[in-house]
């Protein structure tokens, strides 16, 4: 018997997407604070402590421990519940925080669990448990790039992740290994084994420019991969914004050769 609310959805857009969720009377969708975009009249919006699932433990102490796990995963103590209190179908929409794709996850068809990077979760049907997944190996925790704490989505309903850049879903066969930059991992099913491997070679370590560790994902299972991690994009923007061009302050008064070639000045 399905425990989570059974919601319908539709994803709009190409590079700047949002997901519209259709709620029947008394159905509820859960979302991270800041994900809300718009909703129709007849939907109640309520901030709650924790994720609203039945796995928060009993009493105040159980709820506090569950909320503390969400803080470790980089999420908020509170979530927002959107409930249809009207008579007919109502719609509420949630937007991705940066360019990329929204990934729908039917957890019932994915074995009931998906492990994802912290902050990848966008919204879900009420009843989905949003917790944390500790990587059991010390090396994975210390050198995993995104840390050894990841998010764990459990349930039998719909949940939605968001990723940056182009997203590829890859099916790994039993024993098949995929080596990947740690920041490019969006998520994977619970059957996939996750570990960290040293690149090897002194030249690769010093001059490779891609770090000295990468992730190894061993099948069977499904992996979601993003082409442009938001951390990489933010780093490039910061580097560009703080870089001072070599010809600035020259005798050319800022009209250096680099600016002329780049087309920064109009003649």
Structural account:
By secondary structure, the chain is α+β, with helices and mostly antiparallel strands. Helix content is 17%, strand content 40%. It has helices spanning 59-72, 138-143, 202-207, 230-242, 257-262; strands at residues 8-12, 18-23, 28-31, 36-39, 43-49, 78-84, 90-95, 100-106, 113-116, 121-125, 129-134, 149-154, 158-164, 167-172, 177-180, 185-189, 193-198, 213-218, 221-226. The protein has a six-stranded antiparallel beta sheet, with no helix packed on it. The chain has a six-stranded antiparallel beta sheet with strand order 11-12-9-16-19-14. Strands 1-2-7-4 form a four-stranded antiparallel beta sheet, with no helix packed on it. Strand 1 (8-12) and strand 2 (18-23) form a beta hairpin. The N and C termini lie far apart (71 Å). Residues 140-147 and 246-262 have low confidence and may be disordered.
Topology diagram in text:
Blueprint: E1 8-12, E2 18-23, E3 28-31, E4 36-39, E5 43-49, H1 59-72, E6 78-84, E7 90-95, E8 100-106, E9 113-116, E10 121-125, E11 129-134, H2 138-143, E12 149-154, E13 158-164, E14 167-172, E15 177-180, E16 185-189, E17 193-198, H3 202-207, E18 213-218, E19 221-226, H4 230-242, H5 257-262
Antiparallel strand pairs: 1-2, 2-7, 3-6, 3-10, 4-7, 5-6, 8-13, 9-12, 9-16, 10-13, 11-12, 14-19, 15-18, 16-19, 17-18
Question: Which tags fit this structure?
Answer:
six-stranded antiparallel β-sheet, globular, 5 helices, alpha+beta
């Amino acid at each position: 018997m399905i425990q989570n609310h059974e919601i319908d959805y539709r994803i709009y857009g190409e590079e700047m997407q949002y997901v519209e969720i259709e709620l029947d009377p008394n159905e509820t969708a859960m979302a991270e604070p800041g994900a809300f975009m718009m909703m129709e009249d007849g939907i109640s919006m309520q901030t709650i402590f924790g994720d609203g699932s039945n796995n928060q433990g009993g009493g105040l102490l159980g709820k506090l421990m569950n909320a503390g796990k969400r803080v470790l995963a980089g999420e908020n103590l509170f979530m927002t519940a959107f409930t249809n209190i009207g008579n007919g179908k109502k719609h509420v929409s949630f937007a991705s925080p940066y360019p990329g794709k929204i990934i729908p996850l039917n957890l019932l068809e994915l074995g009931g669990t998906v492990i994802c990077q912290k902050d990848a979760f966008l919204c879900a049907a009420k009843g989905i448990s949003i917790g944390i997944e500790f990587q059991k190996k010390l090396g994975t925790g210390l050198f995993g790039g995104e840390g050894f704490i990841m998010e764990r989505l459990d349930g039998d309903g719909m949940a939605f992740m968001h990723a940056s850049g182009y997203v590829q879903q890859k099916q790994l066969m039993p024993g098949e290994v995929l080596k990947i930059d740690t920041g490019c991992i969006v998520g994977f099913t619970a059957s996939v084994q996750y570990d960290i491997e040293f690149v090897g070679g002194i030249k690769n370590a010093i001059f490779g420019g891609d770090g000295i560790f990468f992730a190894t994902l061993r099948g069977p299972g499904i992996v979601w991969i993003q082409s442009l991690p938001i951390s990489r994009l933010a780093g490039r923007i910061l580097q560009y914004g703080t870089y001072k061009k070599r010809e600035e302050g020259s005798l050319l008064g800022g009209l250096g050769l680099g600016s002329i070639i780049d087309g920064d000045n109009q003649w």
